[in-house]
Design a protein that fits this description.
4 copies of one chain form a homotetramer. The first copy, chain A, is of the alpha+beta class. Chain A is built from 15 helices and 8 strands. Chain A folds into 3 domains: 2-100, Four Helix Bundle (Hemerythrin (Met), subunit A); 112-205, Helix Hairpins, CATH 1.10.287.70; 239-346, Jelly Rolls (Sandwich). Chain A has helices at residues 2-12, 15-50, 53-58, 60-77, 82-86, 95-99, 103-112, 114-139, 150-161, 174-218, 222-225, 229-238, 288-291, 313-322, 324-346; strands at residues 240-244, 249-251, 259-265, 268-270, 277-279, 284-285, 300-302, 306-312. Chain A is extended, with a radius of gyration of 30 Å. Chains in contact: A-B, A-C, A-D, B-C, B-D, C-D. Chains C and D meet through helix 1, helix 6, helix 7, helix 9 and helix 10 of C and helix 8, helix 9, helix 10 and helix 12 of D.
């Protein structure tokens, strides 16, 4: 719906389209607006029931919803012509921030790294200003049109320092070119600093976030309860969370497996013969591929929306090296399952769960 | 003031503005100059009282102050016309380096990584020179204007190697384009090296700086005194320093909390009923949200400028897993506070401090 | 063959070449096609013997092979003119993905980091849309040709946000330039985020992959069997795998050595006098340079394709510091070899293995 | 000399300069050539005495020297006109690789990361080829000059994929622009991968190199001999090497100190009253600032070229937390020095070494 709305709005600004199909595009835009209004109303009612109107309105969600609905009508009321008013519909793109996960994470990186990023921005401004002052002096004689005032030189400096390089203003004097070269190299260095800061912050934030998300789930898996707290911390850093919808294949028989799964919530079905087995929250599967040969021995699919914790082969080995008792417990369970599985093949009986 | 001064100076270089509002802009510039002169004089006097005139003049601060004050008047005395002389005011931008924090940190990264950065710069120069020599040979026949001499080719190489790409000189021969492609890919690699070096250095420097800043504060919190030195080192790496001005809300009741706070200096007020409680330096708060459910139970605001040490939820869990006694101590304190809190609700009495 | 085919195809699109040498190029292209068809047929037969036709066809390999063979003939049958149909041969470039190692690794990074990358892409789209809407408003009056509709403005925004900067559309109004500057800086930040995410993911993936590749090999070296599991995990993280073809020099006498080698599979020949010694899988060599002076004492070459595990000098020292018994074992073996070596120089006898 | 030579060569290619000052420039170039020839001859003789002519000639050094000397004369003999022959002098820039340190380090990163970089390059080529094929189809109708053949489209793709963006070829069709946008985003992703790989490799290589450089020096400092091997490994990772020339001030009295120094080789002089004290290899200084207040108490200068090992304050604290005996030893020495220092102020006697 978002894609349709934005496409229609974009098309509406093309004079040809407006003439030939303006009425249809406008209808489409009004339909989108109506859809968003209804969607927001539903969301607002839900939010008010749980939290109160004020907190909803002040949250990012509420503001984006409000702006999305009222910007265009207000524009039209203010007497803007139709295509210009509909331009406000470009604010609908902010709904992407509502949909896509991990916005909070990116934002946190910028907040935590605000100080060094501000320093880099200050360096950026200093290079910008000094270089454009020199450039103005060097080039105004030769190119009075391109470098006739400091704002013009500043524009050149921004374009150059970000290594965009439109080419609308190009230095031609020797001094100008020398300064230009320094600015470009400065641009690369600024770039590098920026990237370095963000990369450092992002790595720390990712680790932290993953730890927090996993911690609560780990505490729900009985298998981990017997471990001492330090081991739980270690395993929490290793596990990765995976949300799986209903009826999704997680393991396919015959594929090479390089991880095992703990079920934090939900249920999976293991397709063993003679009849499939169901595993609920707190159990694990997929460990056979890590213990013996690496080929999966059965299909595993979810029966309801589930949250799984993935333990990678590399981490599994590190972990079991540090905690031999954990390995022994998994080994025992795996052995038990394999035996049951063998028996079953001989004398079909109750459920068994290899994978 | 800095922004006003620089804007006025920028506007003063536009011929139109100069004609129509030159007198006002000049007045504004003189005012800024006067302001900076007075500010510098105050700072200089303070510096001289504490450290001595010489060290002030030789420090970055002193030089920036001096240049900011005297550059323009000297320019005017030397007979430059007014707008050109005021261009020197662009040096005021250097005051940004005085204001913004973390300049020392960025500088240290460049100093420590000077050797590998010099190597990258050497690679840069080698690619630059060799490619422009080849380019000069390849293109001078076809484009005698654009590639008529080696300096012209060098200019092209700088613009291309930094991936700026003005487009004022573009190779048209097959050989020239091949070399061009290699130079561009070389540019990306150089860029990558640069970024890699800076990112590596920055990560190390950030860790080091944070440790040093936090260490002194940690030693002032009595709660940590009982820990053995190795645990103090560990916790110091985890804490983050936060300077908070007076009367600032730190915790809001009902919000989800993901960190606890130690007060290194200052005082906070916890708004519990029947009457608020004040916590001074050396105490901690916000631990209830980490121990039980994650919702904050009271507002906390500073009563004076304070320095807090933040312990993140993820780090809190890792830490208490490694040091069970620390967890026990925090648990006990939290329990005590909750009990007191409950009692208070029944029989209003003296201060209690949930959060 | 791939290079020849693609060159011929490229040349075939140049009108001049087509006229003068069209027949030869077409012949060359048909030859390449035939070669690829035969190669694919061989591969397909092998795959079918081992795995079954279906899994081959569905694998990346099978699809690339099929597309490479049938795209051009189908194009010709559909009535496309010859050069246009041969353009489909550009799909041959996908064979590079079959040849080059590490594609799976890069792909895994993108899959694991899909969430944050999606967030960055959402940020990208939001900046793109909002900036082009503002730009359209700001510039359409002054430049009705360049910014006459929103798609035109979007094109400008993409070119600017990626810091490509063709210069075909350049803002000239003050507002346009201001927005432009913000977009460029936004571009750098997006870039930085992108790089930070990928760098973080890549570092984790590299570590994981190396661990898995090495683990299986380590378990085959008897020398490591005596270590406890935790030490094996540690050494596995340190070793680096190296595939060496037959008859390749690994160590050259007189060179400075900074690593030792464990033979996971294959055989090497150590050129000691009076007659060379052969070392098989499970043994190690090159340790003398790490223990005493750092100069290699003999040439070592492979006699068959071998898999070596490299232990770097820095890691060797860390490892032996943590596991003194490991150092003692290597010391003993080294001593034994040196003694044998000395004896041999006096009384030529059976094989000895210095390096 | 290198700078002069290259400048002269560059100037020699400018037609104006050649006419007016050609004779002087040629003289200057011949002088440089003579200088390099003599320098190389000296170096070659030294190398031959130590290693043998063959290894010198095959080393990077020898080849660069030879090329630098013979390229221009051979060019002249082959009948090239003078400015063109002198262009070969641009190979002199390779001498930078001889001078600048850390080239080996950068090279090693590329060698170790060769596999993933090759994969990225393959991705680069795949995007390049496919996008230029699509572009050729999309744009050849509208712009037969700019996109008339596949090589032209390939040139556009290189310029776009590296985000250089000359603007000499710009897509104008809708499809072309869409593909263009994808290519630009692909360029950013490729860039990010490249940077990520290099950053990961560089971080590992830096750590490794620093460890190796420091290890040998650490083993020479008697103070560290008493530590167990695992502690030596830890401290080796923390120390940073510093080469200091003769008569250089290392510590200035009154400055804030954040590191201590171990002398691996050389000698320093501590300016304490009544007479300075000299400290030789194996001793340490600067520890007082880390133990008590952070202000340096005496000037320290080198008396000969020295190699120092720097222990940062943050690392000092971590280290002493892990190894209390180390702290005790440094404490004792510091105490002894302070006492001696006090005594000396009362009764001038033999040398004492505060800092």
């Amino acid at each position: 719906m978002l894609a349709i709305g934005l496409s229609a709005m974009t098309a509406y600004t093309i004079p040809d389209m407006q003439r030939s199909a303006g009425i249809w595009l406008a209808a489409c835009l009004w339909a989108c607006l109506a859809y968003f209004a209804i969607e927001s109303a539903v969301r607002a009612r839900l939010a008010m029931q749980s939290g109160g109107a004020k907190s909803y309105l002040l949250s990012g969600y509420g503001i984006v919803d409000l702006v999305g609905i009222f910007a265009v009508p207000i524009g039209l009321l203010c007497g803007l012509d139709s295509p210009t008013a509909w331009l406000w519909a470009s604010l609908w793109i902010l709904k992407l921030a509502q949909i896509s996960p991990g916005f909070a994470q990116l934002g946190r990186v910028f907040v935590l790294e605000a100080k060094p990023l501000a320093s880099v921005f200050a360096v950026f401004l200093i290079i910008l200003f000094l270089s454009s002052a020199v450039m103005f002096l060097a080039e105004r004689g030769q190119q009075p049109n391109a470098f006739g005032s400091l704002p013009e030189a500043l524009w050149w400096a921004v374009v150059t320092l970000t290594t965009t390089g439109y080419g609308d203003k190009v230095p031609i004097t020797q001094l100008g070119r020398l300064v230009s070269g320094v600015v470009m190299i400065g641009g690369i260095a600024t770039f590098g600093l920026c990237t370095g800061i963000i990369a450092t912050g992002f790595a720390a934030e990712t680790r932290r976030r993953n730890f927090l998300q996993t911690w609560d789930l780990v505490s729900k898996v009985p298998f981990f309860q017997s471990l001492d707290p330090s081991a739980i911390t270690e395993i929490t850093h290793m596990l990765r969370r995976l949300e799986v919808p209903e009826r999704t294949a997680i393991i396919r028989r015959g594929k090479v497996g390089d991880c095992m799964y703990f079920i934090a919530a939900g249920e999976v079905q293991v397709d063993v013969k003679p009849e499939p087995v169901r595993l609920g929250a707190g159990t694990f599967f997929g460990e056979l591929a890590l213990l013996g040969d690496s080929v999966r021995t059965a299909n595993v699919t979810t029966t309801m929306p589930s949250t799984l914790l993935i333990l990678d082969l590399a981490d599994f080995r590190t972990l079991t090296a540090h905690h031999p008792d954990l390995k022994r417990a998994i080994d025992a369970e795996g052995q038990r399952r394999m035996n049951e599985n063998k028996q079953l093949r001989e004398v079909p009986r109750s459920g068994a769960v290899p994978s």
